[in-house]
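User: For my dataset I need records formatted as: sequence, then structure tokens, nothing else. Please produce one.
Assistant:
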Amino acid sequence: MYIFLLFLNVSFTNNTPELSSAFRAGELSPEVCSSERYDSLNMRFVGNWPFGPSYATEVDSARNLAFCGSGGGVYILDVSDPSNPVKLSDIRTRGVVRGLFYESSNERLYIAAQDNGLEIWNVSDSGNPERLGSCDTPGEARGVAVSGSYAYVADADSGLRVIDISTPEDPSEVGFCDTPNFAQGVAVSGSYAYVANGSSGLRVIDISTPSSPSDVGLCVTPGWAQGVAVSGSYAYVADGDASLRVIDISTPSSPSEVGFCVTPGYAQGVAISGSYAYVADANSGLRVIDISTPSSPSEVGFCDTPGQAQDVAVSGNYAFVADGAEGLRVIDISTPEDPDEVGSCDTPHWVWDVAVSGNYAFVVDYDAAFRVIDISTPEYPEEVGSCVTTGFTGGICVALSGSYAYVTNADSGLRVIDISTPEDPEEVGSCVTPGEARDVAVSGNYAFVADENYGFRVIDISTPGDPSEVWSYATPDAWDVAIYGNYAYVADLYYGLRVIDISTPEDPEEVGSFETPGSYIRSVAISGSYVFVANNEAGLQIYQNLLPGGSEESSNKEQVLKVTQNLFMGAAEVQVDGANLPAVLDVYDVTGRIMEKKIIYNSSSVEIGANLKPGIYFVKVKGLNPVKILKLK
């Protein structure tokens, strides 16, 4: 089973798009607010550009259409020329598209939209699909099959749900059967629904009375049942690492395994056409299995795909494979022993980061693509431009400055994208870093890169077409960076928070640090003199910057704290002018601990530091700018 974790950072400028009058008035259409589970206190869903990896596919053979799940959406494609699929339109849901079922008789598409349950769309006009209705389910809708007036939804840990779709504008649940594990896929034949149920194998559900479905049979499989297809008296189960299993269902109350065929990958989905089963086998692509003798199925051909084959649908001489991050692949299966990819349609990868400026959102995804999204109509954002950056791993973070976007590209360092024409972004420069570039922040003519095991890198971007590294500072595991004033704050994963003085970018200096309590930190944000750290199991940690220029409170105040010697060996003298007296003077070390405290009653000098060990310290009086001092001996 494949689990992907997505970490998403969001940054904004002040130029956000204006909402339409209907949205300003708080009047959202039912289509937008279809599920309250997403709306929270004082927050409301507006619109989305939800596209990502493909987990499901369906076909309309009569009209030469393919439906390709893409993240939280569906691409509707004209595949009359299989070598060149053309996108006609798209569908946007509030969940992740995990399963599709197309009903040709009424040209409706049924979508298992994970957290958003079942959605029903009229796709009779392939260029302008219309959402008819939806029915939220208690679990995560993973698969769907339709028979007559009912849709049967494999709802993960909530089992099989039966939805009355006789009124598609108002579908409603009328029955359910709680299966013991994790309902992943479903197929319907006659009066029975066959559920691929994770570690519980295949479950047979009697649906002759849809309002009262009952579990009547089971066949435990050795793997994790992911998908199921039925043909005649046999059910074919994509059983994860246990490959393809063939189950005799001639007696539904007593299904039994009669054969299997080992595939090299992880069987995720299966489709049947004639004497062949087509298995979506994750990183082993499409496998073609001869099932003419169900008790002895055998692989006769395969076509490796570039991604992770998740699902497959067959129409005529073509198999359509939902290939995860590599979108839809079209495979010619006219010769089952030698299937061959003839066409494809790319979908976006996992989106890692986004920045917003004016009417555009700029996103980077994991397949090295930089995408420009027009958000002038927030209810319906549209991709208007893209640029593939050089690199293997792909984009992780993006920062904006003027007409340029700066993208960290993991093992390909920092890439500079000209966004002066949003519809045609272009990579114009790059600077390869020695590590894995994880994050970037821009200030003036410099970009500051968190470069994982190779620490903190300073890159001169005064000439965007020819950025160059001017300095670096070795931290053990830099993952995130934020800039405020003259300081860079580095989230150093297992090694806490580090503060770097960047007032001279060619010679940055570590001036502060804090060993945080959690096992690691991945993200840091700044607001005024406060530093907010995402600290894993230790939650949110808040620190205060005591350094000069690190506080909004004192940034505009006259400097009235005077230290006679910033470099000293025995003791230093401090004098305060203009403060409300008496006042408390604190001396901090670089970790933020108070090492010495004095009460100042008048403007006379006081002595500090006599008992301090050699090192860097900061002298602070409330309301005044702090001063850095260094004891040499």
